[in-house]
Specification:
With 461 residues, the chain is mostly helical. Helix 8 runs antiparallel to helix 9, helix 14 packs antiparallel against helix 15 and helix 16 packs antiparallel against helix 17.
Length: 461
């Protein structure tokens, strides 16, 4: 057995750790945990994107392509839901990604950086500029035809990649700058969700759309009447996903709608929880029998179970679900999406022609130049007007550096490209190539810029 025994000051054995887990060794705030996971997710995302490129351009290219188009079917009686593996990843699995995005958005609005208008003004305004200017630049390059449908592609920021790159500079940039980027990226995600819902929906089936509205109303009703169990929300959210899939509105929006309905108020207040824990710990100490395993001590096990229930009751369902789902989404869902969508066949013979293709040029200019001009320009304007204030210990040159990192589009940009160029594989290929090239350039440029303009942060004793 791979276990490690920790000994107290007198050598007494008291704590047993699996070698890979020490739950109480370090206490992380929710924000620190969020940043840590985004950083790791960014590195994992980079690895899976590289793997997808290798698969799409190596001897396994045909197997990779056929595997993504493997037909899947789920049926009961005469009812059946059929789609390819690629479709299931983009429309089904990514609903979980949008669910976590919705949870993060709701938390930020209620208690985060977006809760106070004066603090929220800068990231909101910067995000709006970072969406509008890239879209205009793209549209200027591709004003008509099917290519014009890709105007929403350079509007997005990949939160995992961008925060991962900024976290590498954590010793040189203030924590408030990372918070600013998180808030900006979340507002950016909200903008992308609205764009997908409004502009990338082809046809609407009224019946399923009305059913989806009724299901969302039911979720809100669950919240109003005080249901704190998550299973009812899950069941209705799955039905909401199916209704949106049938309506023509992109089904992944069910994730955001489901998240917005999740309760943000816990059952216990902190005072009641504190009193309850003290009472339980007294019972725990009274029930403890030295040398006897907890597995054979029913009274002790009952106290531990009750304590666990109390911990869940003092934590808001919104908080708990974000904690539970963030890891599988960051470490599984997004890498799978990258593996399924970042595989671009590179043809070096026609590389020169591809680099001048209007879609590739529009996406690249939008993400790199558009994000920089939009975020920096709108931020400067808001600060000059006195509407917003710089984050604590942050300089404007660092905001400009962050605006370059925001040009890392990747996950959401590829997602929008799939919607905008559905059925036009040639344009989709150019868009994906532009996204990868621009994201790499924006990441490197942003990192170098921030490294040059930032000095090591002094750590207080």
């Amino acid at each position: 057995m791979n276990e490690e025994v920790s000994r107290g000051p007198k050598g007494k054995t008291g704590v047993y750790h699996a070698l890979w887990e020490k739950s109480f060794d370090k206490i992380l705030t929710p924000f620190e945990e969020f940043i840590h996971r985004q950083t790791t997710s960014g590195l994992l995302l980079m690895g899976t994107a590289m793997l997808a490129l290798v698969l799409a351009n190596g001897p396994l290219a045909s197997i990779y392509e056929h595997f993504l188009h493997t037909p899947l079917s789920l049926g009961i009686g005469s009812w059946a839901l059929e789609m390819t593996l690629h479709h299931a990843i983009n429309d089904g699995l990514m609903a979980l990604f949008f669910f976590v995005v919705g949870l993060e958005l709701k938390r930020e609005i209620l208690v985060g950086e977006l809760a106070e208008l004066r603090n929220a003004a800068l990231p909101i305004g910067a995000a709006i500029g970072g969406m509008v200017v890239p879209a205009l630049i793209y549209f200027a390059v591709n004003p008509d035809g099917d290519a014009a449908l890709g105007w929403g592609i350079p509007m997005a920021t990949d939160i995992a990649f961008a925060i991962g790159a900024l976290a590498l500079l954590a010793s040189r940039v203030p924590k408030a700058l990372i918070t600013f980027l998180v808030a900006l990226a979340i507002v950016d995600d909200l903008g992308a969700v609205v764009v997908i819902a409004v502009f990338y929906t082809d046809t609407i089936a009224l019946g399923p759309l009305v059913a989806a509205g009724g299901l969302f109303t039911l979720l809100l009703l669950f919240n109003l009447i005080g249901i704190r169990k998550t299973m009812p929300y899950f069941i209705v959210a799955v039905l909401l996903w199916y209704a949106l899939l049938q309506s023509g509105v992109h089904a992944t929006l069910a994730g955001v709608l489901g998240a917005l309905s999740v309760p943000a108020i816990p059952r216990y207040n902190p005072e009641r929880f504190s009193a309850h824990v003290r009472e339980l710990m007294q019972r725990f100490d009274a029930s403890h029998q030295p040398g006897k395993s907890i597995m054979t001590n029913d009274a002790l096990r009952a106290v531990v179970q009750t304590l666990e229930n109390g911990v869940h009751s003092v934590e808001a369902p919104l908080q708990r679900l974000e904690h539970v789902w963030h890891m599988p989404v960051a470490y599984l869902v997004i890498p799978i999406f990258a593996l399924a969508n970042a595989g671009i066949p590179l043809e070096f013979d026609s590389l020169g022609e591809a680099l001048t293709h209007p879609v590739l040029v529009g996406v690249s200019l939008g993400l790199v130049l558009g994000k920089f001009l939009g975020i920096t320009g709108f931020s400067w304007l808001l600060l000059k007007m006195g509407v917003a204030v710089l984050p604590k210990d942050t300089r404007f040159t660092q905001i400009a550096g962050v605006s370059l990192l925001a040009g890392i589009g990747f996950t959401m940009s590829i997602f929008v490209a799939q919607l905008g160029f559905s059925g036009r594989e040639d344009l989709l290929l150019m868009a994906k190539t532009g996204i990868l090239a621009a994201s790499l350039l924006a990441g490197v440029a942003g990192f170098i810029w921030l490294y040059v303009v930032s000095k090591p942060v002094e750590v207080e004793d």
